[in-house]
Amino acid sequence: MIDMAAKNRAAAFSFRAYALWILFIVAFLVLMFVSPTFRNPQNLLNLLQQNAVNGILACGITMILIGGGFDLSVGATSALSGVVAAVVFLRFNIPAGIVCALLASVSVGFLNGLLVAKVRVNPFVATLGTQIIVRGILYTSTNATPIYGIPLSWMRVGLGSVGPFPIATSIFALVVIFSHVLLRHTPYGQYLLSTGGNEEAARLSGIQTDRVKIAMFCLGGLFAGIAGLILLGRTNTGQPAAALGYELNAMAAAVVGGTPLSGGEGSIPGTVLGVLLLGMVGNALNLMNVSPYWQPAVTGIILLTTVSFDTVTRKK
């Protein structure tokens, strides 16, 4: 009976993954056929570049969801990374700014991990609290004023290319490869899946579940810091209000990509597909001159449709 149940779950997950791929391919082919502007190679490269930040955040969110967690602070953490980097860039140099920005981001993730794993605060409440705290610190310390004067060379990270490929997209690809290898080909990835699937059983089997949770939040903070550095390269200003609402977009991409909120299941390739699907729809709506106010509604429809389909599949 146990083997049959496991096979059924595996078959259901595989079916959902194939269905998402079919949906993506059909939508892509339709847009390629009906819109000459969409199939322009430059537009496709812009699509990849524009969704790099959301994709990096979504990879971190995916790891946290798989581990049974939740993180509403990644947008604020990205803004923190950008502001810290901007300040250190101006006072010292770019390498020091990168290190300080990533350390600040990982520190937020570490705080989230401690609150969830050690203090046993609900992940939703813990990360909502840190989001509010980080935003408050950013606004008070900068007087809600952007930081200008960043070296122009840093804009290459956000807007530049190496050959035909945007640098931001290349960084996103590296994050995807790292996340996938970590999740599927290392002991930590197996510990994360086990912890998210059944934390008590994982703990009784000898897994240090508290360490697993702290590490996954630190990883989410690290990815948010990288995303914040790319955002800084796009605007060339340290914006304390940067990345507002980005955590919800990243969460939507992960869920559309097949990662459930219940934990213990999910994949990085699925999340990448979710990022590209939502980004592609947004890009198509822009090209068709659809009001930007409709774009969140369309994203919501896609999210609800995907979750509903996922729920029905699981029941069957």
Structural write-up:
The chain is mainly alpha-helical and 316 residues long. It contains 14 helices and 2 strands. Strands 1-2 form a two-stranded antiparallel ribbon. α3 (52-66) runs antiparallel to α11 (209-235), α4 runs parallel beside α6 and α9 (187-197) crosses α11 (209-235). It is globular. The mean pLDDT is 89.
TL;DR?
The chain is mainly alpha-helical. Helices cover 76% and strands 1% of the residues. It has one domain.
What is the SS-derived class?
mainly alpha
Count of discrete structural domains: 1
Number of helices: 14
Helicity level: over 70%
Question: What is the alpha-carbon Rg in Å?
Answer: 20 Å
Average predicted local confidence, pLDDT: 89
Count of extended strands:
2
Percent of residues in β-strands: under 5%
N/C terminus separation: 16 Å
Q: Biggest β-sheet, characterized?
A: 2 strands, antiparallel
- Give me the side-by-side strand order of the main sheet: 1-2
Order of helices and strands: HHHHHHHEEHHHHHHH
Task: Label the overall shape.
Answer: globular
Q: Uncertain runs with pLDDT below 50, 5 residues or more?
A: none
Features:
316 residues, mainly alpha, two-stranded antiparallel ribbon, 14 helices, 2 strands
Question: How does the SSE layout of this entry go?
Answer:
Elements: H1 2-34, H2 41-50, H3 52-66, H4 74-91, H5 94-117, H6 123-142, H7 155-159, E1 161-162, E2 165-166, H8 167-185, H9 187-197, H10 199-204, H11 209-235, H12 246-256, H13 268-287, H14 295-315
Antiparallel strand pairs: 1-2
Helix pairs in contact: 1-13, 1-14, 3-8, 3-11, 3-12, 3-13, 4-5, 4-6, 4-11, 5-6, 5-11, 8-9, 9-11, 12-13, 12-14, 13-14
